[in-house]
Write a structure and sequence with these properties.
By secondary structure, the protein is mainly β. Helices cover 5% and strands 44% of the residues. The protein has three domains: 16-45 and 54-120, Sandwich (Immunoglobulin-like), CATH 2.60.40; 133-511, Methylamine Dehydrogenase, Chain H (7 Propeller), CATH 2.130.10; 515-629, Sandwich (Immunoglobulin-like). The chain contains three helices and 44 strands.
Length: 631
């Protein structure tokens, strides 16, 4: 991009993958040239720029030896150790440092040599939240951390048995965060793409913070993903060239991000049946979870806006069953696909606006039952203060089409455990579960009646956001952690995994964004040499594969972005009237000023050099900037 006397702000930023590749090349070049020994190693704190509680220790030995790294905890049971295999060139990931201190780190070789290093860290990122209350024991946690992924104004983080933050990411990676078979994490990209929370794709990230790959998707990413046995990835997405969202699933190639297969939920179900209280014609299903079950070769999908979990055949894509309150559904669907409650039916409850469905090894269905509205008819909706959320386990008989509720946790805690959105459950073993209520909101100590707690005012002392994570074993609470923000999901993991935990080499950006839809009709506007008002705060941020327009505009303004040269023009309509948010599952991209808008424009679909212009109401402003997109 070039510009003369710009009438707006312009910033060029490299993708994090590019920044990390350059940083790794620099410290590895330093290591290759230096005489680094066990006694005087090269220590790189925050080696990949986004995990300030990680480091690398690099040194050489004459003979191959194993090395054990131990980060000293505040108590001995909080120590974190990892042994790495024999080598002469040692590049050791150090995980689990504490903030703002000189951490003592032992490096001990199997020949008895040992050194104790002081690794100094800085403050946590501003939006890394700290635990307000935790109840558990180090024996129960057994060295594991509780990881949470962002939903509110917060960042991904991991906490030890004492509630100390020992891991975080300084960028806004969102939605589900799962450990995959090689020990890395799979999580939504930090690159926001479309309203309200869709991101460019998903990222595979090492525990050090290194992005191994970003998998871009034409329909972006939302909510959930699942690693198949062959390494390929099931990912929730959508098609932005039609009028509905969050109703597609794709299988992508693990190596190159190519879309191998697509399942279109829109073609499976009627859109206007079984509506939840948050239903809209655009977001009619709102798929928030995907789970593959190998014994039945089937996919389970959670549709929040129809209060339904559906199960489909993996190969044919045909419906197997539908789990939820049958009220409001056509009789022919109810007879064929829905279950009839049996057993203790007096204490049986259907799930409403659920999240995070999974299938247990015995074929039972678990989910987080948010309970939002807790009815199909408006006249029966419950107030939040009279409601409850819970983890629930159902036993299903697909021959008899019968269902029995065999376990739940949370109903007994009432409104104080109530989350109208987000959250998850995890199955560890029979009787051993995690229940994460991550979207709690209080006003004056009572459950907020706002549609979504994401809209609570953090400056109002009567407003409170909270996340409560519980683990239950044989109906005994073994763990409870409170955080002062909203967190999408929680997952218990060790910091280190079985591999070498080191992923050197070039990170990659794979897959593809879509061609951004253009607007056929261009508003009539008078060309002007005036600069737009500074109040509008117009800015363009350019990346390798896209550029983003930012600005502030009064609601209802006519706004278009125009790219023009002598041969062609590309025109993009930008809405200044926000859609009503009935499902703000990740509020971390929300602007404090709702007059601020943004639009991402992919560099796919055109090449050349273009002047950037903006139509605002009846005037067309030449912003004094040109964009060059190479072939």
């Amino acid at each position: 991009m070039s510009y003369n006397e710009p009438k707006m702000q312009y910033e060029r930023i490299d993708h994090l993958v590019t920044q990390q590749n350059e940083h790794e090349a620099a410290f590895m070049a330093d290591f290759s040239k230096g005489e680094y020994t066990l006694e005087k190693p090269l220590v790189v704190v925050n080696p990949y720029l986004i995990n300030p509680l990680a480091a690398l220790v690099l040194f050489r030995t004459e003979k191959p030896v194993s090395a054990t790294v131990t980060v000293h905890g505040k108590t001995s049971v909080a120590n974190i150790s990892k042994t790495f295999g024999p080598a002469t060139e040692h590049i050791l990931p150090v995980l689990g440092l504490y903030k703002e201190c000189g951490n003592l780190v032992d490096v001990e070789l199997d020949n008895g040599e040992k050194v104790t290093l002081t690794v100094t860290t800085g403050a946590l990122p501003e939006l890394t939240r700290e635990v307000t209350n935790i109840v558990t024991t180090p024996e129960y946690m057994d060295g594991n951390m509780m990881f949470v992924s962002a939903a509110g104004k917060s960042l991904p983080a991991g906490y030890d048995y004492n509630g100390d933050c020992r891991w975080t990411l300084a960028e806004n990676f969102v939605f589900d965060m799962k450990r995959i078979s090689n020990g890395n994490l799979l999580v939504g990209s930090y690159r926001y793409s479309r309203v309200p929370y869709h991101t460019a794709g998903i990222c595979e990230i090492a525990m050090t913070g290194k992005i191994i790959k970003e998998y871009r998707l034409p329909g972006n990413y939302h909510h959930d993903q699942f690693e198949m046995e062959d390494g390929n990835l099931l990912v929730l997405t959508q098609d932005f060239h039609r009028d509905t969202v969050e109703d597609m699933l794709v299988l992508i190639d693990r190596e190159n991000g190519e879309i191998l297969r697509t399942w279109d939920i829109s073609a499976l179900l009627p859109h206007e049946e079984g509506k939840s209280g948050s239903w809209s014609d655009r977001d009619w299903f709102h798929c928030n979870a995907v789970w593959y079950d190998k014994p039945t070769n089937s996919l389970s999908l959670s549709g929040r806006h129809q209060d339904i979990i559906i199960n489909i055949d993996y190969e044919s894509g045909e419906l197997n069953w539908m789990l939820g309150d049958p009220e409001g559904w056509p009789e022919e669907l109810v007879k064929k696909y829905f279950f009839t409650p049996v057993g203790d039916v007096e204490n049986f409850d259907w799930q409403y606006e659920q999240h995070a469905c999974l299938i247990t090894p015995t074929g039972d269905v678990m989910c987080f039952d948010n309970g939002h509205w807790r009815a199909k008819k408006k006249e029966n909706y419950r107030k939040n203060r009279d409601n409850f959320s819970r983890g629930v386990r159902y036993r299903i008989d697909t021959d008899k089409m019968e269902i029995e509720q065999v376990w739940q946790y949370g109903k007994e805690r009432g409104q104080h455990f109530y989350s109208p959105y987000i959250c998850n459950v995890e199955y560890y073993d029979e009787g051993h579960y995690l229940v994460h209520s991550g979207g709690i909101g209080y006003v004056d100590g009572m459950a907020s009646e706002l549609l979504l707690p994401a809209f609570l005012d953090p400056e109002d002392p009567t407003h409170e956001q909270r996340s409560i994570t519980v683990e239950v074993k044989d109906d005994v609470v073994m763990y409870e952690m409170h955080l002062p923000s909203q967190f999408y999901r929680a997952e218990k993991l060790p910091l280190y995994h079985d591999g070498d935990n080191l992923c050197l080499g070039q990170g990659k950006i794979v897959g593809s964004l879509d061609v951004t839809p253009e607007f056929d009709t261009v508003a009539e506007a008078e060309e002007t040499q005036e600069a737009p008002s500074a109040w509008n705060q117009v800015k363009i941020v350019e990346e390798e594969d896209r550029f983003t327009f930012f600005g502030r505009f009064e609601k209802g303004n006519l706004l278009m972005l125009c790219l023009e040269n002598e041969k062609e023009a590309h025109n993009y309509y930008i809405s200044t009237t926000a859609r009503p948010a009935l499902a703000m599952c990740v509020g971390s991209f929300m602007e404090a000023d709702d007059r601020r808008v943004s639009m991402n424009i992919s560099k796919l679909g055109f090449t050349g050099t273009f002047a950037v212009k903006m139509i605002l109401n009846e005037k067309k402003y030449n912003l004094g900037v040109t964009i060059t997109v190479a072939e």
